[in-house]
Design a protein that fits this description.
Distance between the termini: 34 Å
Largest sheet: 3 strands, antiparallel
Number of strands: 3
Strand content: 5-15%
CATH topology of one domain: Arc Repressor Mutant, subunit A
Radius of gyration: 16 Å
CATH architecture of one domain: Orthogonal Bundle
Helix content: 25-40%
Strand order of the largest sheet: 1-3-2
């Protein structure tokens, strides 16, 4: 899988993101990231009162949660091509 807008160059696999940095990169509300961490949907460590998310963990989460929209592959709503019954 290729990430459309990867994190800035120079950040290795061990680089850590703050909640705000990750939210900005993924273009979501920071509370969405916090909620995912609290629900254990996204791996993170806690330093004091702040979460840090390792780039490798983000990439793993993206691979597991990327929906594919190609012919013949299932999507979350059912078979590709919609929910219409076959004739």
């Amino acid at each position: 899988m290729e990430i459309e807008n990867p994190p800035p160059a120079g950040l290795g696999r061990n680089a850590f993101f703050t909640v705000d940095e990750l939210a900005d990169w993924l273009k979501v509300n920071p509370e969405t990231i916090r909620r995912m961490v609290k629900r254990k949907q996204l791996e993170a460590i806690r330093i004091g009162r702040a979460y840090r998310i390792q780039r490798e963990w983000i990439e793993r989460w993206l691979r597991r949660n990327t929906m594919r929209d190609t012919a013949g592959e299932k999507t979350r709503s059912g078979a590709a091509g919609g929910d219409e019954p076959e004739s």
